[in-house]
Fold this sequence. Notes:
Elements (H helix, E strand, L loop, with lengths): L1 H13 L8 H6 L7 E2 L7 E2 L6 E5 L1 H5 L6 H5 L5 E4 L10 E4 L7 E5 L2 E2 L20 E8 L3 H4 L6 E7 L8 E9 L3 E12 L2 E15 L14 E15 L4 E15 L11 E18 L2 E18 L9 E22 L2 E21 L8 E3 L5 E15 L2 E12 L3 E14 L3 E12 L3 H5 L10 E15 L3 E21 L5 E22 L3 E15 L5 E4 L6 E10 L4 E10 L2 E5 L6 E5 L2 E13 L2 E8 L18 E10 L1
Parallel strand pairs: 6-9
Antiparallel strand pairs: 1-2, 3-8, 4-5, 6-7, 8-9, 10-11, 10-35, 11-12, 12-13, 13-14, 14-15, 15-16, 16-17, 17-18, 18-19, 18-20, 20-21, 21-22, 22-23, 23-24, 24-25, 25-26, 26-27, 27-28, 27-29, 29-30, 30-33, 31-32, 33-34, 34-35
Amino acid sequence: MKKNYVLVAAGLGLVQLVLLSTATRAQDSVRVLHDVVVTATRSPQKQTDIGRVVTVITAADISHALGKTLPELLNSVPGLTFSGAENAPGISSSVFLRGASTGNTLVLIDGFPVNNASAIDGSYDLNAFPLDQIDHIEILKGTGSTLYGSDAVAGVINIITKHPVQNELKANVQLSGGTYNTFTEAAGLIGKIDKTGIAVNLSNTDSRGFPAATDTTGKAGFRNDDFHQRSASVNLNQQVTDKFILNGNFQGTYNSGHLPYGAYGDDKNFSYNNTFILGGIGGKLLLPKGALVVNLSQNNVANNYNEVPSALNFSTTQVVKNTGHITNAEAVFNYNLAKYLDLTSGAGFKYNNTSQYSLYNSPGYTPPASTIDPGTAKNSIAGAYASLFFKSDIFHMELGGRYNHHSKYGDNFTYSINPSVLLADQLKIFGNISSAFKAPSLYQLFSQYGNLNLKPETTTSYEAGFDWEIIKKTLSFNAVFYKYNTSNVIYFFSQSVSPFASFYKNGRFQGDKGYESEIKYNTDKLTASAYIAYVTGTLTDENGATTNILYRRPTHTLGANVYYQFCKDFSAGLNYKYTGDRVDQNFNTFPVSNITLKHYNLVDAHLQYEPCKHISLFTDLKNLFDAKYIDWLGYNTRGFNFMAGIKYRIN
């Protein structure tokens, strides 16, 4: 272990206040109107041609954050709060995009959906994905159910892994280490051999961690909750003919470690291991005026938790074994119908299945195990959609609709109306009225609290804004105002009078509204940005009474990022984020009470030195001023911490 620290210290000795590696990369990190994105329309389109907000975290941005985790990186996106990103390693975190609850943001990996069929809300744990395997990320803000189906209520996060591009094989090795005895090793091989492309990435992370739960006495000697991650990804593509390409991908992660006994509680013997496996195969056929893409994917998640009796957990035994399986098949057809008219259409089928076993025993309380039978806990959803994209001079318009058939609740329909105007090739003004839905999860349908009569949550959203490239490729400014109305919100209902019962039901209404604004500036040596976001909303019950607020979601967030290329070899950057007051629930009181968590400021720095084209030395200094704050009531957050290392590129 001491050797690792010597290597890290040596690397730090060569690194000065620096960030990005080259001026070319600095320019890549600026979002301009003529950038090409795929997530908003399921086909490559310039941002000038779409009336949506798409944030791109580029390969250059990721190179600024080699010592960060994926949740930490996403937490710097305007309008996105990754609650729990700074908790102990291995503690789950929650994605809140524009105030929507966790599970209402669809996560894709290379365009493949990666829901968790075993989770209560179906959400995917992004702690399962190491940052070193990612090329770039596209974040579509706003409802996307017309093109993507269920869960794309607040937006879509599309993680694009490293793919072969160049016609030669290149390899790289990365070693890093830092606070909490955290060490990461990664290796990659990428490139093309004739008409075959290959990208293989392996990574390993081990962290001793720190006590995840808060010790209110400061004397209880809570254990460090460790975290271990093994991950591999493989991307292959084969140019069969000039018009036809086959591709396949695999992404697997195994996480393990220890957890606390909930908020404020220690536990020496609560261990877990989680396995995430995604495999897909697809093909792309190029047509004279478009393309046909067909994909088939399998997404499996397995979660195991084991609680050994001890005095600290009141002699409790707990065993949880959950598995989730999702099979997804889809075809996407893009075609230029006429000079001013493009079509994106497609059809998809998704099959969900879960098996769950939960045993909880303590002295004097030995209920039977709770199970969910995989033979009955299954459903499917099929959908077909079409969107027309009209482009004529300065006026653009998207009109889309999607029909869905769910094996349990039946049929539903979503739509999208999205006009935009491009003035002087620099100012885009847009509006959007669309609908979205979130299907009930298998747990909400088939668990001991399940309700087979649940309907999907349905959302109508309204957006208006502008994107202004004031000085081309140098200065840009955007602002978006939005409102979401969600009906049939699914919630957990407990009847406190006889006959006592607890189950999931529809009935609540959630209303969110807010705005986001961002300004970016770029030159050959300097990249800078600043943003502000505001969101507010409430949940009401069937009678219109307020029942809930947006827990753990700050009303105000703002931030700024500055990167500077001091010279050819040295670059540096600072990241700042203000997170406003939030409300969390205190479950240590009866009845449960609300408590306001105070706002906090975080400042991070990234430093990078490249003595030659093959070597990069870097460090990420996080929570630079050692701010003391709470993200989740009863859980600790990271103080000042760092990761530093070296990346060596072969060829």
